[in-house]
Amino acid sequence: MDPMGFGEAMQAMQDLGDLDQLENLMKGATNPGALAEADIDRIRDLMGDDAAKSMERLAQLTKLLEDAGCTVEVPQTQTCCGQPAYNSGDRATAIALARKTLEEFEGFDYVVAPSGSCGGMVRAHYPELFRDDPATLKRIEALASRTYELTDFLVNVLKLDSVPGDFAGTVTYHDSCSGLRELNVKAQPRALLAKLPGVTLVEMNEAETCCGFGGTFSLKFGEVSTQLADNKCGNACATGADAIVGGDLGCLLNIEGRLRRRGDLKTQVLHIAEVLAGRSD
Q: Which of 18, 38, 42, 267 has the fewest beta carbons closer than 10 A?
């Protein structure tokens, strides 16, 4: 099994920091869970909090899957799934990245994505990119059929009866656009949160409304994006929840960034893997 998204986080860190130091740090680590806490601190020193936070979240995803009995492997060469290029109309780059992803991932039994946007790209859009290439399309369709968003995989493939998390407090859940609309992820994360005795889920108004990120949308339409993020933060905070939980790394980055700019330093913003795997602070 392979968790898609590790390479994307690595690429972001490579863009931000010292490549030689990063490569030395990652030598010998075959998956995100192999990184020690000191390594995460070193990434934070080199690349900043956002990159370190992405690695922490991917480490929690790996831990969650391994605790469920999965063998997790991560191709070190993986990068982006191609969604930004696809959304920008750059089909040539999107196809090239899709071919690269196919070569790296098709040998695994399952591919699990920590973001609905990556999973949605593979399942909903890769087949369209290769509609005129029957031989590759067959391989792409096979890969798409084995690609899952994390909570969908935990609920509908592994059928978990319990999760190891010990989070205690109230949470509200943000439904990401791609996970909800392309992968039908809605009930799955809520079913998993319900397995944690210390968690109380309080639904926010407009939980299914976009947070304003939308990848390149937030760059092209900054004012609209900011208003959407403000609406999301306002609705989430109105619940009084201790934490905003979601299943898309881009959404979480956007929501937390806007929360902090609004002066909210208290409300936690957590990937659902962090809650399910055992985070309690």
A: 38
